[in-house]
Design a protein that fits this description.
The complex is a heterodimer of chains A (533) and B (310). With 533 residues, chain A is an alpha+beta fold. Helix content of chain A is 51%, strand content 20%. Chain A contains 15 helices and 19 strands. Chain B is of the alpha+beta class and 310 residues long. In chain B, the strands form 2 sheets. Chain B has a 4-stranded antiparallel sheet. In chain B, strands 1-6 form a two-stranded parallel sheet. In chain B, β3 and β4 form a beta hairpin. The chains are: A alpha+beta (533), B alpha+beta (310). At the A-B interface, α7, β18, α11, α13 and α14 of A face α4, β5, α5, α7 and α9 of B.
Chain lengths: 533, 310
Amino acid sequence: MLYFTRWKATAIVLTALIVCLFAVPNFLPEKMVQSWPKWAQRHVVLGLDLQGGSHILLEVDSAAVRKEKLEALRDDVRRVLRDARVGYTGLVVRGNSVEVRIREGTNFDQAVDKLRELSQPLGGILNTTGQRSLDVRTEPGNLVRLTVTEPALVERIRQSVEQSIQIIERRVNELGTVEPLIQRQGVDRILVQVPGLQDPTRLKELLGKTAKLDFRMVDVSIPAEQALQGRVPPDSEILYSSTQPRTPYLVEKRILVSGGDLTDAQPGFDQRTSEPVVNFRFNTSGARKFAQVTQENVGKPFAIILDNQVISAPVIREPILGGSGQISGSFTVESANDLAILLRAGALPAPLTIIEERTVGPGLGQDSIAKGKLSSYVGAAMVIIFMLVTYGLFGLFANVAVAINVAMIFGILSLLNATLTLPGIAGIVLTVGIAVDSNVLIYERIREEVRSGRTPINAIDAGFTRALATILDSNITTFIAAAVLFYIGTGPVRGFAVTLGIGIITTVFTAFTLTRLIVAYWVRWRRPQRVPI
Amino acid sequence: MRLLRIVPDDTKFDFMRFRRISFPLSALLSILAISLYFFHGLNFGIDFKGGTLIEVQSKAGDADLAKMRTALGALGLGEVQLQQFGAPNDVLIRIAEQPGGETAQQEAVRKVRGALGDSVEYRRVEVVGPRVSGELLSYGVVGLMLAIVGILIYLWFRFEWQFALGAMIANVHDIVLTIGFMSITQIDFDLTSIAALLTILGYSLNDTVVIYDRIREMLRRYRKMPMPDLLNASVNQTLSRSVITHVTVSLALLALLLFGGQAIHSFTATMMFGVVLVGTYTSVFIASPILIYLGVGTGRDSLSAPDRDK
């Protein structure tokens, strides 16, 4: 146990040294590290609880996605039947299905065949799953039921999340924050982490808006007030203004031009009133459509609608042919800027809801770092002193081993670009406890072996052999607990699991190699007649 | 230099005799803890209950709790708890989960920000919606179970099944008592508490495994020693290690408890209770003597004569 070949000893020391060196960038000023090669720049990232920032978990509104998908399917069915000149009655959305009754006297089978064509294989060209997007069934009474299959729905939600992530990235990047993290979580969730925000209100507003922009005509056939009391024309609907008091508008359902046709949007000021406005520019097809509509409707009002709220309803004074325009409507400088950001980033495919938020202000973060440091230093100092009084020279060996152990934890954390949280610091402090324990196990075993009458070198050798088996057993059990924590935990708890898990690995490494190496060299050098513990 | 010896060499405490006290005592305490859980309950934090937690620090002098209470009470947010948190100008505001789903929670935060305005610094805002809180709780419970099962399987492979069972009983005992502690102290029970419970589990097992390791070794070496004597010897031999390790862990925990700040206070307090008080007691007075009842070592020669085949 105490004999090391030269190359083995070198390998051990080199491994420890290299791992420790990875921790170095954490302790140097950022400017110095920036000139280094990329691989050497890796460092520990402070968690949101330490540097301040917002953790926001968003969920795609699956009900909205489902509804949209079903309505699209209903429109498809209508189109298919109309193209095939098949008469039908009662085309409705019911539950997860669209139902339609084919009129008597038409070719029922042919109609069903046409409808079956709407169902597509899932899973791309390879279609390994054999699943299809629709389940088409016929029932007595010429009823056809088209059910959207669960995999198709999940696929659609997945796509929505994918698109949403891209759009959110664009929105968050406009805030000019450092290193925002945006990632998918589970099937229908998106995690947004933005460090260093004083007030997340604006971020949440940017995340929570769908930003679906439509240009539609105002229905002037009857006044809105009258429509509210009586019948709303079938092709129109009532929408309210975004500003207080909320004025009702009767607008046509038909969308003239949508936000998807925008190429640019910038905040600006109206030349006459000097109010904040948003200037926008259409792409070619949008510009063409907009020009045509405005030419045909001079003198009539149209509505600019954002997320089903009317921002403004100006009257078309002259045809707008240049493909650019202006949205005005009691903006502040900031809200005009935000709207421009939202329009440039594009609309979300489905609404997102904030289901979890954790924000830590920068003040609390700094306090936590200070407290984490203080408690670590005090804890380390107490442990070091205790080990020295208990084991003397071997206590010093243990302290050296534990110090290298902690340095290695930082090295590995840096290598992984891991996040250090306050519970993570607690994990490191506890690792110190475990690391010390491994030394205690070894030393106590050596004491026992000495007592049972072995020679010093024999006792040390046997002590290591027997204690290491125990160390391995006890650390593996703790490691299992850490692994489970990592698996189930989020945020800070995960940080704890990471440092604890890494700590256990480095502890086992140091106990098996470094501590042994130090003691072995000491034995070779001193040839002790007595074990000083 | 004379070195400190906390535990003298060759102690011969008769730990196994205490099983007549420790088993009924533990049974009693466990029942007490379980009834505390059911009748006194745990102080579930927002992680598991949903709701909003806001930590504010008043910018000018000490916080006026009464004034803040009236300001927030007028918002109609249902139950609003205010609590001094560490420093006198630090206040923790807890708002129960709002009816009306996910967006209603965000609305509550907006109202509080409106009511308190710029007179305070918002140090921390945590909002957990109803859906997430339910998931977090089930994740926590499942995680705890998974950890126990995982560790059991490992112990089963490394030792005999009796050891695994003994360790599991000790484990459940630790967790039950710690939950009783959390119920008495009404410490916030949140995700960090689950982390604390899992760490206690790991530590207590660590201790148990060290003693079990020794018992296994003794079983191989002394084929004829009566079980109580063998267990006593094993615990005594590892006693010095147990004490020294627990002193060092307590020192590290004490530092965290005293200087780690409010944010990890409940975590370290729970750990202190679980690791130092329960974990140590369990491995010596429960996990080891229970092996007698589980029939470890009964397959050996059951002679009570002193051992000679050393």
